[in-house]
Amino acid sequence: MADRIADIWGARTPHAKDTPWPVRVDMHLDQGLAEPDVDRWVQSACVLCSNGCGCDIAVKDGRVVGIRGRAGDVVNHGRLGPKGLYGSWRRDDADRLTRPLVRRGGVLEESDWDTAMDGEEPDVQQHTCQVLAERVKRQSAALTPIVERYGEHREREPERLHATGLESTRSGAVGLLRDLQDLYTLANLTDITWTVVGQAAQGLRDRELLDVVSSCEKDTDRQLAWLCTRIKQAAPQALIAAG
Ligand code: SF4
């Protein structure tokens, strides 16, 4: 049979208007096997796209060894595309991935499902948190000369938003979700505060403060984006799996 990677559509089967679409049974078996070697054919359908081409799966010695299109199927009249022909039936193939791969430093490495579904390795998450925390320290340092110039007038009112619960972390999946939500609330307060301070800096025509606000706003945007992603990842486990 033709190499269906090189010749994706396979041999043409032209037919006249209002005449039946000709049958063309495509088949692919493990190397070295021919049709008489197959012990039995099991009816199935390719599920690699919405066409759902009808097919028969070849079984030999209890192993899946190939596929052929089903001639009587109204969808494909025996034809199979390259995906169905070469990929759909390879349950027992040595190259089949049976464990998830996670990209670390640009390289795909085997991992486990919990890690892969969580989206990030624990050490990667820790590294991300450290990077974001370092940026906050840089913000604080950048604001120091400005605070010295204008002075500091602490108001009691915003202190209520410094969630005391964040001094320690909650436990469990729901606790993690609530910690992340608290952080998101605080990051939003920081975000709108940069807007307020930026407006003041414009009024004062304070170029230095405007530069600090512009840089810090970007950092806060990154914090919010990361927190939003983590909340989306943590929510299903906290609200569905844990329940
Ligand atoms: S054989 Fe190709 S066209 Fe048919 S269902 Fe599979 S992927 Fe889709």
Automatic annotation (TrEMBL):
InterPro entries linked: Mopterin_OxRdtase_4Fe-4S_dom, Prok_molybdopt-oxidoreductase
GO MF annotation, one: oxidoreductase activity
Keywords of this entry: 4Fe-4S, Iron, Iron-sulfur, Metal-binding
One Pfam family, short name: Molybdop_Fe4S4
UniProt cross-references to Gene3D superfamilies, sorted A to Z: 3.30.200.210
UniProt xrefs under SUPFAM superfamilies: Formate dehydrogenase/DMSO reductase, domains 1-3
Superkingdom of this protein's organism: Bacteria
The 4Fe-4S Mo/W bis-MGD-type domain, residue ranges: 39-95
PANTHER family assigned to the protein according to its UniProt record, in alphabetical order: NADH-QUINONE OXIDOREDUCTASE SUBUNIT G, RESPIRATORY NITRATE REDUCTASE
Entry protein name: Molybdopterin oxidoreductase Fe4S4 domain-containing protein
Organism: Allokutzneria albata (Kibdelosporangium albatum)
